[in-house]
Amino acid sequence: KLLAFVFCVALLSTSALAQNTQAASPDDVARQFYGWYFKAHFPQPKRSNLATFRKYVTQSFLKRATARDVDSVLFIAAQDTDETWAKNFTVSQATISGERATLDVNLNGKEMKQILHVTLRREAGVWKIDDVKGLID
Predict the structure, then answer these.
(1) Side-chain half-sphere CA neighbours of 128 within 13 A
(2) What is the 3-state secondary structure (H, E, C) of 73-130?
(3) pTM listed for this prediction
(4) Are 65 and 45 in contact (CB under 8 A)?
(5) Which residues touch 112 (CB under 8 Å, ≥6 apart)?
(6) How far apart are CA 28 and CA 36, in angstroms?
(7) How remote is the C-alpha of 71 from its chain's centroid?
(8) Looking at the DSSP assignment, which residues form a beta bridge with residue 126?
(9) pLDDT tens digits, residue range 83-133?
(10) In angstroms, what CA-CA distances link 96 with 3, 27, 60, 93, 116?
């Protein structure tokens, strides 16, 4: 019985390790976040969706994005939006340097085009969006 127990513990540890090594890449995280964000029509972080924001965004960036003195939407680095971005955005391959990664999200809407320069940081072993800067296309 002890041998069976040890085998089960070893199997569970191996499984957990495999899941950690297959964690989402920075580009996957950006693609998943912006896919959700655009389809949800640019939601503000609030109690009903906070868990989703926390899954994709660092605590410090979430705090900056919800500060009272912010006059633009930090997740898209703009005040105006284009509903067609949901079906017309691409994410570049990330450049990773230690615990930081950078990539571009190209927003190719019918009304507006924009490039977002996105910085991600590892938080608790998971890549999360930590900053977004808008670049005019």
Answers:
(1) 17
(2) ECCCCECCCCHHHHHCEEECCCEEECCEEEEEEEEECCCCEEEEEEEEEEECCEEEEE
(3) 0.81
(4) yes
(5) 78, 80, 81, 82, 85
(6) 12
(7) 21
(8) 123
(9) 999 999 999 999 999 999 999 999 999 999 999 999 999 999 999 999 999
(10) 42, 10, 20, 9, 17
